[in-house]
Amino acid sequence: GLGRLVDVARAHRIPLVHVSSDYVFDGSAEVHTEDEALSPLGVYGQTKAAGDALVATLPRHWIVRASWVIGDGNNFVRTMASLADRGISPSVVSDQFGRLTFTADLAAGIAHLVDTGAPSGVYNLTNAGPTMSWAGIAKRVFELRGRPATDVTEVTTAEYFAGKTMAPRPVHSTLDLTKLTSVGFTPADADTRLVEYLAE
Fold first, then answer.
1. Choosing from 44, 123, 160, 197, which is the catalytic residue?
2. In b/e form, how buried is each residue of 10-48, taking b as 16+ CB within 10 angstroms?
3. Where would I find the beta strands (DSSP E) of 14-152?
4. Active-site residue, 44 included
5. Hey, how many other C-beta atoms are within 10 angstroms of the C-beta on 80?
């Protein structure tokens, strides 16, 4: 599907925005820059990496890499908030690290790249702030819902998925935002957006 879209964009000289993923990396680096070599761990990451390569053949393009996306519909934050509200104490993975990307900021960042005519290429686009684990984010959600952070039990990925088949995930998903800020877009802090999101 993406290949056909690229063909149309090339034929009609249409600039193309493509949303990519931290899954194009193996997570061995603690922070990923745009020029890091692609090293996907599984089939999903391989398809995203292939998509990046296709889009990069266009003369005018923006490949926007996001991670841990939160927006409308079911997602990790809403699940944790629901568990907190229902008095459930979950076990959450503590050995995967990254930053949340709220869809409003992802859309605003993409609009900025297009509207300002930013140079073609790859841009990391997540919310700002410290790197956190999934468990750390869950604990913060619980606190914001009036529950103790200690009601969230930290477990390893291996423990959480014991006996289950799982797609490989990068341990480190934090994306460096230096290039994005250099073209004039500074995303909001992830915790600020988390507070606002849960207040809606």
1. 44
2. eeeeeebebbbbbbbbbbeeebbeeebeeebbeeebeeb
3. 16-21, 31-32, 61-66, 69-70, 91-93, 97-98, 101-102, 121-124, 132-133
4. yes
5. 25
State the Cα–Cα distance between residues 173 and 22, nearest whole angstrom: 6
- Burial class for 87, CB neighbours closer than 10 Å (0-12, 13-18, 19+): exposed
Residue pair 137/149 in contact by the 8 Å Cβ criterion: no
Residue corresponding to tokens 């680096």? 29
Q: Is the pTM of this model over 0.85?
A: yes
Write out the chain's pLDDT in tens, 200 residues: 999 999 999 999 999 999 999 999 999 999 999 999 999 999 999 999 999 999 999 999 999 999 999 999 999 999 999 999 999 999 999 999 999 999 999 999 999 999 999 999 999 999 999 999 999 999 999 999 999 999 999 999 999 888 888 888 999 999 999 999 999 999 999 999 999 999 98
Q: Residue length, the chain?
A: 200
d(CA 174, CA 168): 16
Phi, psi (5° rounding) for residue 78?
A: -65, -35
Q: How many CB atoms lie within 10 A of CB 53?
A: 12
Torsion of CA 122, 126, 132, 135, to 10 degrees: -110
